[in-house]
Amino acid sequence: MKTVAVLGGGPAGAFAAERLARSGLHTRLFDEKLAWEKPCGGGLTYKAYHQYPFLIENDTPKRLVRETTLAAPDAGEAKITLAHPLVIYSRMDLNRMLLERAERSGVWIEKTRVLGLERHDRAWRLRTQTSTLEADFCIIATGARNPLREVGTQWSAKDTMCALGYYVPAFQEHIDIQFLEQLEGYIWVFPRCGHLSVGICGKNEPAQALRTRLEAYMNQRGISSKGATFYSHMLPSLESPGWRSNRVAGDGWLAVGDAGGLVDPITGEGLYYAMRSGDLASRVLIDDAHGLLEKAAAYRALLAREFALDLEFAATLAKRVFLGKFLFSSVPARMIQFMRRSPRFRDLMQDLFAGTQPYLGLKSRLLRNLNGTLQEVLMNFFLHRVIPGESRVAS
Ligand SMILES: Cc1cc2nc3c(=O)[nH]c(=O)nc-3n(C[C@H](O)[C@H](O)[C@H](O)COP(=O)(O)OP(=O)(O)OC[C@H]3O[C@@H](n4cnc5c(N)ncnc54)[C@H](O)[C@@H]3O)c2cc1C
Q1: Less CB within 10 Å around the terminal CB: N or C of the chain?
Q2: Residue 299 Cα to chain centre, angstroms
Q3: pLDDT digits (tens, 9 = 90+) for 141-153
Q4: Which CATH number fits domain 3-42+90-155+239-314: 3.40.50.300, 3.50.50.60, 1.10.260.40, 3.40.50.720?
């Protein structure tokens, strides 16, 4: 393979490009903005920086936050101190760091918009704002608003979430997560260096309604939007059928990150999956054991093994977690109550925050660990209601 073109230089594209160039492949990356403040919370879980320690061991400005408050209507709040902090970046800083790493490893980076791509005789012809060029293989990393219709995930409205918020010039020490009445989504307040990212994500609800909910919350909490910058973006949130038919790879291309729909449908975590899929895609490209025609299948198999089956299972849980009822109360309200009363449930929530507890193992973990108190018998009953049979997807 002579040249790999990486289309998009967010975390998925920049990380894939770095890995490809390190292995000696001629790698060209195109992004219309390069480092920019992409609408995002900017939170990286333990899973991400444990896998890629440079994400925490660096001089780039970031906040490490442990204190977290979760709240739901009619249930008050529960506080936890995370065993592993959430690492929170401004996306401008995170993107810049990843692009600089790519450049240092030999990636040829150009700031331009990719306008289209065509397949000719087992090669790609790319059209950018500035030139036309040939590549042998393409990594599609153009994010959730991928404008290139012939490559990457194809989704319908129900496979996406709307996410919007404000960068507020204020300070707070802890993270807030607020569940809301009848919303498949939540509000977050993430402390960053010099400001807060305050946002809301939600499925099946218009952006204006989400904004109204967020502003009501901010008013109630005394968080002023004066001087704050508004942001909004789309977030992939594939339903189960979307995961099964996901167009994540094809002849001569692999899609990574949001362009491949690779986002946790419950938490909206996408940064880890962007970087991990970039890493996996680069391994498949580098590995000579797969011929060019086999790369797509090899990548799909790797994704499934690493996390796609787990995220597909999470898609079956999402509605139950946000909109379900248990003993006349909402599931989020019951979760807050269990967190206050059960150390075991708090541990479980810790691990979910850290990203170290796969959704597919949730039920068996709880069944293994119950100690027979009334609270935990109730919790067992609750989890049976919320979590369907895990074997359906795993088998
Ligand atoms: C409001 C919000 C909050 C979020 N909070 C979190 C969080 O706290 N933690 C977390 O893990 N995830 C979060 N996510 C998800 C996370 O932001 C994404 O999953 C992540 O950015 C995906 O990275 P990516 O590289 O795939 O795509 P992107 O970061 O979107 O990068 C795509 C890049 O492609 C470029 N591009 C697009 N089209 C073209 C073109 N035609 N030509 C050239 N360049 C192009 C863009 O300029 C962009 O730089 C959040 C998402 C939203 C919307």
Answers
A1: C
A2: 19
A3: 999 999 999 999 9
A4: 3.50.50.60
